[in-house]
Amino acid sequence: MRDTTKHQGLRNQLAKVLEAKGIYDIKVLSAVRKIPRHLFIDSSFESHAYQDKAFPIAADQTISHPFTVAFQSQVLEVKPGEKVLEIGTGSGYQTAVLLELNAEVYSIERQHELFKKTSMFLPKLGYRPKRFIFGDGYKGLPEEAPFDKIIVTAGAPYVPKALLGQLKIGGRLLIPVGDKEQVMTLFLRKSPKEFEKHELGDFKFVPMLKKKN
């Protein structure tokens, strides 16, 4: 669990790279500078941890490109104290960013191996979501709804109705939609039945899986 001044320097460089690519949210860039991303990946990849790359993690999943994490976090426009539902805990890096933005985070992971690993690892770094849930992200978390923001960190073939239904009026749902490649799609809930949809470009995610594993 080493985090050195060299790592800090690499994080500062990464934040500059992300800024050059269009990330302007100061709080998101500050989170990138603070969170030790090298601890979230296999130590054999450590020398590449602060490049804008995705890496494999346990259970055939990946830790997303830092740009993707920063972009999703920026688009969500998280305000302190907001209830955020994260679908796909994965390595926990995106979770940590949301917590740095002072959100109240509820995070669902469907892969049991990852759920166990990340739910033990994050608190060691001082990151404590409101709840870690082992479950099916397609169903969301009805007992805690409604949410101010919902973020999906895996490619979904369609937009689950349950997630739209668990969004507050005025809330934002950000989800990559598609099979092999995805279009980052933002839904703004305008009224009980009305949603405004925005497509924000092409991204590549691992697929969002149904049921528990």
UniProtKB/TrEMBL annotation:
A Pfam family the protein falls into: PCMT
InterPro entries found in the cross-reference section: PCMT, SAM-dependent_MTases_sf
Positions of the catalytic residues: S64
Record's keyword terms, sorted: Cytoplasm, Methyltransferase, S-adenosyl-L-methionine, Transferase
Coiled coil: none
EC number(s) given by UniProt: 2.1.1.77
UniProt GO cellular component terms: cytoplasm
Task of the protein: Catalyzes the methyl esterification of L-isoaspartyl residues in peptides and proteins that result from spontaneous decomposition of normal L-aspartyl and L-asparaginyl residues. It plays a role in the repair and/or degradation of damaged proteins.
Protein name (Swiss-Prot/TrEMBL): Protein-L-isoaspartate O-methyltransferase
Species: Tenacibaculum aiptasiae
Keyword Coiled coil part of the UniProt annotation: no
Domain of life: Bacteria
Molecular functions per Gene Ontology: protein-L-isoaspartate (D-aspartate) O-methyltransferase activity
Methyltransferase keyword on record: yes
The reaction(s) this protein catalyses: [protein]-L-isoaspartate + S-adenosyl-L-methionine = [protein]-L-isoaspartate alpha-methyl ester + S-adenosyl-L-homocysteine
Family: Belongs to the methyltransferase superfamily. L-isoaspartyl/D-aspartyl protein methyltransferase family.
Protein location: Cytoplasm
Any one GO biological process: protein repair
